[in-house]
Design goal:
Elements: E1 19-25, E2 28-35, E3 38-43, E4 57-58, E5 63-65, E6 72-74, H1 85-90, E7 93-94
Antiparallel strand pairs: 1-2, 2-3, 3-7, 4-5, 5-6
Length: 99
């Protein structure tokens, strides 16, 4: 039997369409974004200055914007808008499991 180490973060019904919500699991904060019924989960700290990305906003083109200095991150790749690869590596994108 295959053993998994998944921890349930939330139900997809917990995040209305085109909204996002912050969740805390094991003292780590994550932001779940429902962008037109596409779900993305990111670590809730901007790699620039550690501000809460969940307090920011996202747009239809799939960019999450940090409220502090307006840095933008692609929800699909985690890369920032300027494609600065060092910053891109610091955003954690978690694969979702929808059942």
């Amino acid at each position: 039997m295959l053993e998994t180490n998944f921890v349930k973060l939330c139900n997809i019904s917990d995040i209305p369409e085109n909204e996002m919500k912050i969740f805390n699991i094991r003292n780590i904060e994550f932001v779940v974004v429902n962008n037109n019924k596409e779900f993305h989960v990111v670590y809730n700290k901007c790699p620039h200055m550690g501000n809460s990305l969940g307090d920011g906003s996202f747009d239809d083109s799939g960019y999450l914007t940090c409220p502090l200095h307006k840095w933008q991150f692609n929800l699909e790749t985690g890369k920032d808008l300027k494609d600065m690869k060092i910053l891109s590596l610091l955003i954690l994108i978690f694969q979702q499991v929808l059942e």
